[in-house]
């Protein structure tokens, strides 16, 4: 089903990712979700899967961020905006795109750990890929200022570090 995977800067990739993301998260769908009022950051990179016709069928965004974990500066690799085109689901596309993004975090960007946020219904997918629940507090920036971010659950990918608890300050918008 996947013909090729491309990694591109976020702005250049938006022409492919935008229509795919909007087809999954239309305003009507987003209005029903617990994170509907969250202001998200724009990713730095996009991992896109394309079919043989050149149409995008899978996406994830990569955010590269300096953050604080228990007042220690850390290099976090964020994952967000994971989507698979509706007619292509259950073929391993999201898992394949996620694995490629995880490889980028570790090998290309040398992050201390990965971080993503997800609703409980999606947690088993990420757990199968090696992500672990972060049981501490996460703080992020929103239009009203610095807030405890608990709209969705945080999960970490162990790279150089393996945080499970403590206080994580994203020093910016969540992803």
- Uncertain runs are none
Largest sheet: 10 strands, mixed
Q: Give the percentage of residues in beta strands.
A: 35-45%
Look at the structure and give the mean pLDDT.
97
Total count of strands:
10
CATH superfamily: Gcn5-related N-acetyltransferase (GNAT)
Explain what the structure shows.
With 175 residues, the protein is an alpha+beta fold. The chain has one domain: Aminopeptidase.
Short overview:
The protein has 175 residues and is α+β, with helices and mostly antiparallel strands.
Topology:
Layout: E1 4-9, H1 10-24, H2 27-30, E2 45-50, E3 56-69, E4 72-84, H3 93-108, E5 113-118, H4 123-128, E6 132-133, E7 137-142, E8 145-148, E9 153-158, E10 167-169
Parallel strand pairs: 4-5, 7-10
Antiparallel strand pairs: 1-2, 2-3, 3-4, 3-10, 5-9, 6-9, 7-8
Which short descriptors sum up this protein?
Aminopeptidase, 175 residues, 10-stranded mixed sheet, alpha+beta, 10 strands, 4 helices, globular, 38% strand
